[in-house]
Amino acid sequence: MKTMNTISPVVDELVRVALAEDIGSGDKTTSLLVDPECRGHARVIAKEMLVIAGFLPFMKVFQILSSKIEFVFFEKEGSVVREGDTVAELKGPYSVLLTGERTALNFLQRLCGIATNTYHYVEKIKLFGTVLFDTRKTTPGWRALEKEAVRLGGGTNHRMGLFDAVLIKDNHIAACGGIRPAVKRVKEVKSPRLTIEVEVKNMEEFREALDAGPDMIMLDNMSIEEIKQAVKTAGGKVPLEASGNITLESIEKVAATGVNYISAGAVTHSSRAVDMSMIIEPEN
After folding, report:
1. How many structural domains compose the chain?
2. Catalytic residue among 169, 190, 207, 228
3. 87 & 22 share domain
4. pLDDT of 73-124, one tens digit each?
5. Does residue 157 sit in the same domain as residue 217?
6. Closest Cα partner for 218 from 254, 253, 244, 183?
7. Same domain for 83 and 126?
8. DSSP string, 180-227
9. Could you tell me the residue range of the domain that residue 137 belongs to?
10. Any idea what the CATH number is for the domain that residue 82 is in?
11. Which position among 27, 146, 148, 199 bears the catalytic label?
12. Domain for residue 185, yes or no?
């Protein structure tokens, strides 16, 4: 499966949309109260343990508003920081720091939240050597950012979209009349760069998929006992991925079955924004 090494160029567009949404015709409070010549100093502080992600959109917010903002980052993305740690400092026009604060923190808190959630999932399964995959259950337009946050939290990116891997699901199987004809059809025309994965829901489908010879089989919402049976039956002939309602409480038991991969949509769609603050003060 693909690993995303670069953040999509849509970041600039996302940030511009977010700023337009928040600022609209102008920051009325700041423009009325703050001298545009006044300079300020800001500190971004972690208010809980978290994993850093999202510095690029955070910076982009202020860079779009002004070319005069200076940044110092005290931690690398992917670093685990403690409650109370200062992760960044900014200097520049006081009014710009005030205007960009909320939008910048929205990006940073959301992406740090995904990285932190992913980190906790990975910690649960690292002793088993199981790889954690993300899914396509991402915020529309944010996929590149959110998948990068997963990677920074220690997870691995599954397919980025419908374009970079073949995942044959139940509706595809129904359209083709079965797993074997579906896999056969894809093998006849697929690019060698695309993996073929088949989703199965029970042992009968699993055995049919195993005979069809895909590159990977996804065990969807199967019980722990069924997953164990599938691992034993496969005998290492094909990598297996467990998926479906994987939670922080259940993932360790799934990993203990011996599957190679576990995918969890919850690392993106159910991550909460972490608690961070930005303290802004005028420079003396």
Report:
1. 2
2. 169
3. yes
4. 999 999 999 999 999 999 999 999 999 999 999 999 999 999 999 999 999 9
5. yes
6. 244
7. no
8. HHHHHHHHHH--TTS-EEEEESSHHHHHHHHHH--SEEEEES--HHHH
9. 122-269
10. 3.90.1170.20
11. 199
12. yes
Is 187 in the active site? Answer: no
Output the domain CATH number for residue 252: 3.20.20.70
Active site residue 102: yes
Hey, which residues does 133 pair with through a beta bridge?
Answer: 156, 263
* Residue-level pLDDT, tens digit, the chain, 284 residues: 443 445 557 899 999 999 999 999 999 999 999 999 999 999 999 999 999 999 999 999 999 999 999 999 999 999 999 999 999 999 999 999 999 999 999 999 999 999 999 999 999 999 999 999 999 999 999 999 999 999 999 999 999 999 999 999 999 999 999 999 999 999 998 777 789 999 999 999 999 999 999 999 999 999 999 999 999 999 999 999 999 999 999 999 999 999 999 999 999 999 999 999 999 999 86
Given 27, 101, 220, 226, the catalytic residue: 220
Same domain, 28 and 101: yes
169 as an active site residue: the answer is yes
Q: In one letter, which amino acid is 30?
A: T
The helix (run of H) or strand (run of E) holding residue 237 is none
Q: Is residue 257 part of a domain?
A: yes
Q: Which of 39, 136, 137, 228 is catalytic?
A: 137
How far, in Å, CA of 77 to CA of 51, rounded? 8
- The residue annotated as part of the active site, out of 16, 47, 102, 232, is 102
- Indicate the DSSP class of residue 87: E
